[in-house]
Specification:
Length: 703
């Protein structure tokens, strides 16, 4: 006993540092684990962000390189719409998109103060409601792109074009077995995605009669008063006997009914340059869809794998009061130009990134939110406008017979439409404030008195900010009671003028409340290019919880606050101070807009719009605000991919059970090209569609 005791007492006599050292060196793994645990807990508890652990942010894709669009403050009357195609479309709705015509007074009052009544005139309300309702009752058209990829002749044609497509030639020349051990995958140049797996585009075109059922869902769930015409864009194939090109026709479609409500439109009729046809590239076809003749101004674009699942109404897509309804997700698209190898299997992502690259060059290099894969609201005059700004990019996209040709630099129309509108509303608002509010005397310069107003406004705002701002903390900022959101019971407002509200789409954010994706906790003393890799705050940040600290010296330069400095140019063109504020350092513009917008005493744009209501500027601003008006909406929907048999069966069953909750559902055929699986899944899918949508639409042949 004694020796042991003496041993232990001897060890206790050793210095503390030695004992500690020995303990930890004997338990090195546990120690390491403990340290990591401690680190994690402290990190979570204190919400510390370790900046040094973040990847070094990349610089923006390219400096802002704006093309001339015109618009408020710049537009010469003829700029807008100059690029629009003559002969396309009708005059419907033109009163909204051209200047020089009387802008409805009710719309002005609505945008400015969100008022629908005129206190001075009795009975006017009825009158106004009638006008608004009249506008709301404009029907919406629907555009589909459809191709029967199962058609054997089309398959032959496609193979023929593959043989002369540079994309597939390249692919063919570089085909090497993937499992050849002699080839170091790292040395492959360029990457050979899908190598050895054959054509991965088959399922993209396989026909499962989706269109038939998608039309059934329209007949079932879209009220007749809302539905304009349905335009189905189709490809042409050579007739087996005469060899002449004929448009594909869905075999179940009753041709006797065609041209009333449902129209078949051949690609040839909409392409600017028909020598690029036939096209097997949906991005190419979409880039021309707004050229459909007699297309309504506002229309819905959808793929045939999308189905309505519950009754909807116009207010689920667009209203004269709140504008377009865009469905955005929290996923984001990088602003940099996509770096690509050549591959015949590019997905949708490259086109989104390329489109964001174009948007970033025009409006600032930022991440932009991805659109939900459901229906997309579109506007023909706005798409014409976009095409007139990026004509080469449209031509290039249209000329790619297969998706991914030409380095996959292809535009994505739905993404373009939504984000272009969002950017243009923001631009209109900022320009209006800068040019017609701040430059009070309209002399094209900001003298000290005018600048002082902004300085004072920012100072007053700063006083309302909490003293210590933990910028990255996840807890929401406190509500700012001063902010009067544009979204105040939109359902009641709409119903008060007779526009029905189904409750299927929740309006979560209005563009009238500022840019929805203001970077949370942005540092306005530094360039946006240092922080552009940050995520946009999700749409769930209500405008009354937005916060920012505007830095006048960084955003507007050191002379702005200098009393004795000469007046500053207030123009909004290239290389102006405004361009820096609004686009190069877009976080500055977002913040300033928020601060200005917050000053409206009513839930409208009164603090942003020009003071002189009789001026031309005022009607220009009102016009453009109405043109680019939008909300971000949320609806219940399911996106499902059919892959293996068992998974598909379970998924379709679940979807069937949700027949009372999903406003939309999308079922995507991603079945591998194995005949056995394909056969089983096709059977399951057909059964599902027939069960879910059993009533034939009026446009089907009677069987
Ligand atoms: C409109 O487009 C035509 C043809 O491209 C061009 O000649 C004309 O100068 C343009 N007008 C304006 C005002 O930009
Ligand atoms: C593919 O290979 C053929 C024959 O080796 C060659 O003539 C052709 O230029 C190549 N094409 C491409 C796109 O690399
Ligand atoms: C697609 O083409 C195949 C083969 O020609 C045909 O059997 C099928 O009925 C077509 N589908 C539709 C919807 O027209
Ligand atoms: C139409 O497309 C073809 C093939 O890409 C091209 O050679 C031609 O120059 C285009 N025509 C016009 C008018 O752009
Ligand atoms: C303010 O502007 C005047 C005139 O340009 C200049 O002389 C002075 O140095 C400026 N003051 C500061 C603090 O920049
Ligand atoms: C919805 O699904 C449930 C369960 O599958 C079924 O009982 C019900 O009849 C369905 N309702 C409709 C309207 O199809």
């Amino acid at each position: 006993m004694a020796p042991i005791l003496s041993l232990s007492s001897a060890s206790q006599r050793r210095p503390l540092w030695f004992r500690t050292y020995r303990f930890f060196s004997q338990h090195i793994r546990s120690t390491f684990f403990l340290l990591i645990l401690l680190f994690t807990i402290v990190n979570i508890y204190l919400n510390i962000s370790f900046d040094f652990l973040r990847p070094i942010p990349k610089p923006p894709a390219e400096p802002v390189d704006r093309r001339l669009i015109g618009g408020v403050g710049i537009r010469s009357k003829s700029t807008l719409g100059n690029g629009s195609r003559s002969g396309s479309g009708t005059e419907k709705g033109k009163e909204d998109s051209s200047l020089g015509q009387a802008f409805p007074i009710w719309k002005t009052r609505w945008l400015q103060d969100q008022e629908l009544e005129d206190p001075e005139a009795e009975g006017v309300r009825e009158e106004i409601a009638k006008k608004i309702k009249g506008e709301a009752e404009r029907t919406l058209d629907i555009v589909y792109t459809w191709v029967n990829g199962t058609d054997a002749i089309l398959k032959d044609v496609k193979e023929k074009y593959k043989e002369i497509s540079e994309l597939f030639l390249y692919f063919k020349n570089n085909t090497r077995p993937t499992n050849n051990p002699n080839i170091n995958p790292k040395n492959r140049e360029p990457p050979l995605v899908g190598n050895g797996k054959g054509d991965q585009t088959i399922h993209r075109f396989r026909d499962n009669n989706e269109l038939k059922y998608s039309l059934r869902s329209i007949a079932e769930y879209i009220p007749e008063k809302m539905l304009g015409r349905i335009h189905i864009l189709t490809t042409e194939v050579p007739d087996s006997r005469s060899g002449q090109a004929v448009g594909q026709v869905p075999e179940w479609l009753d041709l006797g009914k065609v041209d009333e409500k449902v129209r078949l439109v051949k690609h040839r009729e909409v392409y600017d340059n028909t020598s690029v046809l036939p096209s097997f590239n949906s991005l190419s076809i979409e880039s021309q869809m707004h050229h459909v003749s007699d297309l309504a101004d506002t229309f819905i674009y959808m793929n045939d794998d999308i189905f309505f699942g519950l009754p909807v109404d116009t207010s689920d897509f667009w209203t004269p009061l709140y504008g377009f309804v865009f469905h955005l997700t929290n996923e984001i698209i990088d602003p940099a130009i996509p770096s690509l190898g050549i591959s015949p299997n590019v997905g949708e992502w490259q086109s989104l990134q390329y489109t964001n690259y174009l948007l970033s060059k025009q409006f600032g290099a930022r991440h932009r939110a991805y659109l939900s894969h459901i229906v997309h609201i579109m506007n023909r005059p706005i798409l014409d406008e976009i095409q007139s700004i990026w004509p080469e990019e449209f031509d290039k996209t249209a000329s790619h017979r297969f998706r991914g040709e030409g380095q996959a630099q292809e535009i994505n129309m739905a993404f373009f439409m939504a984000h272009y509108v969002m950017e243009r509303l923001r631009e209109t608002q900022l320009t209006s404030y800068w040019k017609y509010r701040l430059d009070k005397n309209q002399d094209g310069k900001l003298d000290w008195e005018e600048r002082e107003e902004l300085v004072r406004m920012v100072e007053e705002y700063d006083e309302t900010l909490p003293k210590v701002v933990n910028r990255r903390k996840a807890v929401p900022f406190p509500i700012d009671p001063t902010f009067k959101s544009f979204l105040q019971e939109p359902d009641k407002k709409l119903e008060s003028v007779g526009i029905s509200w189904t409750g299927r789409t929740n309006y979560v954010q209005s563009g009238m409340d500022g840019y929805p994706f203001m970077i949370k906790g942005a540092d306005l003393s530094q360039s946006s290019s240092n922080q552009y890799s940050r995520q946009p705050s999700s749409t769930r940040t209500e405008p009354s919880r937005r916060q920012c600290q505007f830095n006048i010296d960084f955003c507007l330069g050191l002379q702005f606050r200098n009393k004795t400095a000469p007046a500053i140019d207030s123009s909004v063109g290239k290389e102006s101070l405004f361009e820096r504020l609004a686009f190069t350092e877009y976080h500055c513009g977002d913040c300033l807009l928020h601060i200005v917008r917050r000053r409206s005493t009513k839930p409208g744009m009164s603090s942003v719009m020009p003071l002189d209501q009789a001026s031309e500027a005022f009607s220009q601003v009102a016009n453009d605000m109405s043109r680019y008006n939008y909300v971000i909406g949320r609806s219940q929907f399911t996106f499902m991919q059919l892959t293996t048999g068992d998974k598909s069966e379970a998924g379709l069953k679940r979807l069937l059970a949700r027949n009372q909750t999903e406003t939309y559902f999308c079922v995507n055929d991603d079945v591998p090209d194995s005949p056995l699986i394909a056969k089983r899944v096709r059977g399951l899918f057909a059964g599902f569609l027939e069960t879910r949508l059993p009533h034939p639409s009026p446009w089907e042949k009677l069987s």
